# Entry
Amino acid sequence: MKDINTETKILEAARTVFISKGMDGARMQEIADEAGINKALLHYYYRSKDQLFRAVFQSVFAGFFQAIKGELDKETPIEQKAETIVMQYTNMLDANPFVPQFLINEINRNPQTLRDVMDSQQFNPSVFLEIFGNNNKSGIDPRQFIVSIIGMMVFPYAARNLVQLIYFNDNIEAYTQFLQERKEFLKQTILKMIQ
Amino acid sequence: MKDINTETKILEAARTVFISKGMDGARMQEIADEAGINKALLHYYYRSKDQLFRAVFQSVFAGFFQAIKGELDKETPIEQKAETIVMQYTNMLDANPFVPQFLINEINRNPQTLRDVMDSQQFNPSVFLEIFGNNNKSGIDPRQFIVSIIGMMVFPYAARNLVQLIYFNDNIEAYTQFLQERKEFLKQTILKMIQ
DNA sequence: TTTTAAATTAACCATTTGGTTAAATCAAAA
DNA sequence: TTTTGATTTAACCAAATGGTTAATTTAAAA
# Structure
């Protein structure tokens, strides 16, 4: 029982490779190299590529929704909630810029995976709707609202290489600054939306 | 010189499969089956999977930006432009819901591909910025504005399976209606943003 | 120290997959 | 009709890839 963390080490390596390359693009050998172990060890701890992938997906999915859940249960005014959700989400994206793209891709590739994960874990999606529930002053549809906010936040990370090249002439620093300034822009935009 | 359209038939089959599965997930055999021909014919017309993929990517990319270019050169007021861009874009998304996700994925997988395509075709991205250029009344940053609009429009299509399950309990009809209502919502939101 | 079971590895295997080749077919020109 | 060149196919090939196995190492228990 040498290194008790081998299983964790594998999971982290798999997370890195799967998020970067996706299920189809990932190679078991690359995951083994990333973890610094023999390829057979992957199958020793996780029986197959599919099971290893499922473990990663479940972990990423859970961490994703935990990261953005945050302080939203409080009875704060909707303006404050908007501020909180933007900061919570963008902080998560700065730390995990490829996670949303990974989740979207793999859910599209095999939608059943998400259903399985949501069945195994208890997860109540309605909490996001209740935050901006029907009892908001503006009468705005909370679903349209939430989808808009997430779309505005996620897109510049998911499509970074595209936007960076087309609108910023591949200038990385300029795009980083754009993302930084965007936080304030998003807050103001959300406030305008619920006016 | 039997069927002069074999090459086109291959390209269309490849487009279908590549957009659905991506470069990594696509199989030459599946493309051949989709086109109703022998696998060797793919290599007869396009030397390799990579070249076939490039032909598809170039075609999809060009078609994408052509579809959304639309009437935007006119000297119409910004409110009218917003209306036009939303209708143009959502119509394109209704017809090609997986195209943006495909482009984003493949550009992330190999950013060089986009540079090559943009070099080979003449393509001026600044046209989108000039539409909502600095001479708008609100003083809004046109880049932040454009990225927001595209994000709001693309996200519910790219993440359809995710959003449909979490917020609409996998009810396809309800989600279709949501997308339909969203067009009007987006117009109003854009107007609020530039107030 | 010896034993035992878990952990780790090198070598190997079967299948998939992109790609090739030589033969067959077809359609038009001579 | 014969010829010629493009088109199409069946069969095949080599490399990549997920997975297995038998042997070795390690670390703790007896």
User: Anything to note?
Assistant: Residues 1-3, 6, 37-41, 44 of chain B lie near DNA strand D (CB under 10 Å from a C1'). Chain B touches chain A through 51 residues (CB under 8 Å).
